[in-house]
Structures are given as C-alpha cells and as structure tokens.
## 1
Amino acid sequence: MQNEESTQYAEKAIDLAAERKKEKTPDRCREIEKSIIKQFRKEIWRPFVRALNEYDMIKEGDNIAVCISGGKDSMLLAKCMQEILRHGKMKFGLHFLVMDPGYNPANRRMIEENAGIMDIPVTIFESDIFDVVVDVDQSPCYLCARMRRGFLYANARKLGCNKIALGHHFDDVIETILMSMLYGAQVNTMMPKLHSTNFEGMELIRPLYLVKEADILAWKDYNSLRFLQCACRFTEAAEAVAGRDENHLSKRQEMKELINRFRQINPHIETNIFKSVENVNLDACIGYVKNGERHHFLEEYHHSIDTDI
C-alpha cells in the first residue's frame, strides 16, 4: 500500500511539474520575443527590418518557409519572422521547416524542445544526407549544403511556399567575401536573395543579412538559451582534430579568426569589407564576369580617356 501511495505521489509530482512548465513556457516565450523588440532593438530588430526593406525580400501574399537547422541563427530568424508578421503591415504565409538529415536523438530532441519553448510550430521531415556525405573526401560541407537546399526547396514547395528563408548573418557575408578572395581568387559574396536555378518560381532570402553574429550570441545568452551546433559527423571529427592542431581549422573558421584580428586593428574594417562589394569600381577592374561571360579592361581601353594624371 505504501509503495502504491508513493507511486501515486510521484506521478502527481511529475504532473504538477509538467503543468508548471506549461505555465512558464508562454511567459518565457513572451520574454524572448520582447527581448528582440526592446533590449536588442538596435542590434537585431532594426538591422533585420532594414535588410527586408533594402533588399525587397518580402512581398504581399508571399508564402515563406523559414528553414530551421536548430542553431541560434535560424531559431532567431524564426522569431523575427513571427514578429514582423505580427507587427508589420504586410500579410504573408509563414511555415517553419526542419530537415532532420540524420541527427542523433538528443539533437533532434533539443530542436523540438526549443521550438516548444519559443512557440515555433515546426514541420519536420527526414533525409539521409549525413550518411551520404560522411565518406566524401573533398568538400563534404559544400555537398551537404547543396543537398540540404534542394531538399528544403522541394519540401517548401509541397507546403505551397514560393520562398525559403535562411539564417545567414552579416559575419557569414564578410567571411564569404574574404574566403572567395584568398582561396577562390575572385571577388564574390553571399547575396541577400537569389532566384532558384532548379526550382522555377522559388526564391531564397536571407533576412538576418545585416545582423552581426556577436549580437545573436548576446541575445542567446541574455535569454539563457542553448541551441544546436553543427551536428554532422564530419564537423565533429574536424573540430576534434582542430582542438589538437590549429592547422586543421576549417576555411570559414580561419576567416572568423582573421576578421577578429582585423577588428582589433580597426573596428570599421568589417563594415569596409562588406561595403567593398557595394562599391565595385568597374573602371578600375582588370576583369569581371557578367552573366557567365568574362570581360577584360582592354575591351574598352582604346576607347577611353586616360585620367591618370
């Protein structure tokens, strides 16, 4: 009898704890939402809205799939998109799409729990991408990203969406600029929006384009949130090696560290890197590529006037 009463008491305690958790979750979600609009208005909300307006990312009647990886960037993007729909003047459809490429159960559970805490109604679909790329020797991250995007476009279309939104931020943009110059021998960047070449009528948008990673981290810490890191087997192995040998850092991590050193020299350098691809001077370029066609300055050289006096 005593054991039965103890069991009943334990069950009631569990039920009570669950009820209390349910009561606390809406309040916590509201605090998270409030922090974006209030505490991080200058750092997150305004750059987010400015990117939407400056790059004309959303139109009336759009149906947008926010693609959630479970990391800090995509989860913040989901909340920002909810808030702009709630407080903005434009009406559009909004879906939250999670692809499970082969997460271990703990990582999958973390995504689901964070979605519950933040009141993000996610749609989850599964794929075997991690299994496919784990044995690829060259550029597994590139292949993984391409495959992920294809799956996301296809499943977004099934939901009736015409756009997918990804959580790339300002630091991703300037890292891409430097990486393309130092390792790709070209001036290239991550665009704020793109037409899909394989899914007609679909577009990709990056609403966090002007939001800095340091501010996303500050928002995460302010709300005591814990998000998923990249959980693929290749990255875990690479990070384990990098922890022992700094020469095995990924190219993107190299760029992060390089930019951090630049910031110590001049706090405006990161902004100047970004603006360099807004201020390309074709009059002072040896060559450039337009619509896949390569051009050389000598094509117009004999018809120009020398202004170098």
Note: Residues 9-14, 16-23, 241-248 have pLDDT under 50 and may be disordered.
## 2
Amino acid sequence: MKVVQSWDDGIVDDVRLTELLRRFGAKATFNLNPGLHQNQRSFSFQYGDKGVWRLGRAELIDVYAGFEIANHSLTHPHLPDLSPADLTHEVQDSRHLLQDWFQQPVRGFCYPFGAFNPAVKDAVRATGHIYARTVAALESVFPPVDPLEFGANCHFTDPAFWTRYERAKASNSVFFFWGHSYELVNETLWADLENKIAGISADSAAEWVNLETLFVQEG
C-alpha cells in the first residue's frame, strides 16, 4: 500500500512537522502560496486562541528540504471569483516562483478553500499541473476519476483515520490524508500525529511516496 500526505499553507508549525516526518522517514507534499511569504515570519490569521504565522521567505528552502512542493496559488484567494487574467496570474506565476525558489518541478496544485469550477480546472491544467487536490473525503482515492479533482481518504484528525487506513491496506491501494500544521494546537494532538506517522512507518505493508509520483507513474 502506498501512503501519501499533504499539508497546506507554509505555516511556522511546519518546522516542527518536517522534523517529525524526517525522524520517521515519512514523505509529504507541502502546498505553498509564494506571494504570502515575506522576508521574515509574518502574522497570517487567528485560529481560535492561536495566532498563525507564515514562514519567512529565507527559511523555506531549509524547512522543506527533501519534500515535494506543490502550488497552492499565489495569495490563497477564492479562485472561482477571479477574472480569467487574475486566475492565470494566481495559478501560473505562483508555479513559476516555486520552481525558481526550490529548483524542482512543481506538478501538483491544491485548491485554496477546496474551491474550483471548470474555469479554475482549465487554468490549472493549462499551466502545467498534472493533479489538483480537493478537500473531498473519499473511500477510494486512486486512480481518481479526474486527476484535477483528487480527493483524500480523510483529514489527519478524522476519528476514523485508522479504520480508513486499514481499509486501504486491505485492498492494497493508496491511503491519503491531509491537514494544516496550525491545527496542532496542543501536545496531545502532536502526540497523536506522531503515533500515526510512527505507526505507518513501522508497517511493512506501507510505503511512503510523494503524491506526484502516483501520477508520473500513471503517465
């Protein structure tokens, strides 16, 4: 069984998250908005009692070294609301920036707020992306009916996480989960995530893979 995970937004908590993943040899995809990263760390929004900060531009390369980078648009707008020109700007320019910064191909896209329509999908396809992640929860994720509507099995906090994992393993298919590291608001949640990462890494039936690898192989 192949296991993939996807994390959004380029948040300061990704420093701790990437350290955890490296400790257990877990691969992951990080979806970034290059237009929102300033030279230094910057406040982004409030999540309950927690202030969420974005990583500084200068630290991105070190934080995400060894991980797959995907495009999450330039500034995280609601893409279906944009004009054709602004849509192309958000989808195309962000991909070019990320490829320049990280010196690696950026083939994946993640819809901000999970929002898309046919025009958004067309723009994502036209700018060179081979898959686009949604927030849909699906029983079976791969192969998708449409690579530009690629859903996940569950969110990392889903109470049915292990049930869904075991179902995917029973069919020797793909298990895919996602989330935001800012949602890890206490040590209990961090410990639970570590247990999940460690458990998957210790499972001889599971193989961590980069998300884009699924589609490159299919192509």
Note: The chain has one domain: 2-218.
